[in-house]
Amino acid sequence: MNSSTSSSPGALSPRSCTESSADSRIPELYSARKLASGDVEGRINALFNRVNAIQKKSGQFDLLLCVGEFFGNSPEAEAEWEAYKSGAKKAPIHTYILGAASQETVKYFPNSDGCELAENITCLGRRGIFTGASGLQIAYVSGREAQHEPAPSHCFTSKDITALVAPLLSNSKFRGVDILLTSQWPRGVWQYGNSPETDTKFCGVSSIADLADKLKPRYHFAGLEAVHYERLPYRNHVVLQENAQHVSRFIALATVNNPTKKKYLYAFNIVPMKNMDPAELVKQPQDVTENPYRKPMKDGKKEKPPPSMTGTEEEPASQFFFDLGQNKPQHQQRHGRKRQTDGDRPNYPKQPRRPPQPTGPCWFCLASPEVEKHLVISIGTHCYMALAKGSLTPDHVLLLPIGHYQSVVDLASEVVEEMEKYKSAIKKFCKSRAQRCIMFERNYRSQHLQLQVVPVPMEKCSTEDIKEAFMTQAEEQQIELMEIPAHTDLKQIAPPGTPYFYVELDMGEKLFYRIKKNFPLQFGREVLASEALLNIPMRADWRECKCTKEEEEDQAKQMRSDFEPFDFALDD
After folding, report:
1. Do 256 and 120 belong to one domain?
2. Which SS3 state, helix, strand or coil, does residue 391 take?
3. What gap in Å lies between CA 372 and CA 388, rounded to an integer?
4. How far is the C-alpha of 288 from the C-alpha of 346, rounded, in Å?
5. Which residues make beta-bridge pairs with 442?
6. pTM for the structure as a whole
7. CA separation (Å) from 372 to 326, 342, 389, 403?
8. What family does this chain come from, according to its entry (predicted)?
């Protein structure tokens, strides 16, 4: 094995600290079976005993990669290491460790550029690229981010990161590295994904996040937090805007032999990127999410809508809505919910930023005098729920922002957060009634976001039936509706201002169409009302489903009562 950055400071130079060459001991990495370990902290015997047990059961692995702190400070830890250093004991597998992550363990590393510390145990060094003869690339950065200059020997600096990244990115054929090893976590890696079992307030650093974003590792291992965290895989491209790329997996490992038995050893198979079929390499798993290190486009970078979209009439707003009026619905008053008027707002401890204001009258802003208050089901801080006027079914509701936002991709972060809470609540509500929760949004000929929620009885059809109905009717009307990964953030594929139609099925599947010119305004209702699904085709047009105000009041009252156990807004 050799170093691809051997000419730069800190790159791996696989040599013995006693000046004898270690090249003959370094595996060629043709095999795909690897092991990764969390912080060893001097428990070397425990680590290798576990490795021996695994290899006895599952066969030989060709490489062990250790992240975090390898050495310990106790007399017992020093004695264990002395046995390996002297040759009395030998590591049962080629083991590669990162450099010191604390001042106390610097003494174990005679050379910060990497060297063989004992037979089968090699320190990679401060940072560099470890490249096998098979083409497997392992990038690494040891230690913690330096807080000041000059940097302590157990810390890395921005210069280290630049020296590592620059040669790789200068190559036009660079697609990413196979493996990235870091001591510290990348800051914000949990965004868009599952949450780790640790306090994220002080977890990770931005420099490692930036490194991971640039190097696009297929596997990224880190330690130091004493927890096991396997994040959902994330993509390295923007859907529908960039060519598909491989996904990345971040895996944090716990401390070796920890008392709570958290996972500290990870076995995996990997074929070097350069040896893989391109189509196989970029396959996206079902649970892939957006890239946690990339922020969606800012509101100022709005995409200009097609010419055919400008000057077109909006769909009449009267399908929907409501009016705050002077009095709250009695259901809300019973629970002490009171919305303050504009004159009362200074009494709030802190106000969120004011949403964009409509250029003219808007039937969907909750403060609008035209709103029909009897249809309101629930009111939160930033969003509310209302019965749809001319509803497809008795429990067909709308989720809307209180302020003026045109679409989901325009929402401020605090509005998105509460919108997700409402979505979660209505899903639980539907599940309790043996219904599939189907949601859709049409950002076309409308000026205020309306997320339609239509429950479909499970006995009527399966999720696959619903998806097939949408795809079939889309094909018949020459609409290129496509399935997108469940964790896709719409902001990454539809910048603000982009007209689109979007469906979210009950099992998380998402369908998306970027509207290019004309689009049937009732498409979502038509599909759900079709014979294949709800079998109420006569209700496809909301204008054919009007009720008297008394009927609407009864329907809304019933819905409020049914939804009350799931209404988080009543507890605020």
Report:
1. yes
2. coil
3. 11
4. 43
5. 501
6. 0.55
7. 12, 20, 10, 16
8. Belongs to the CWF19 family.
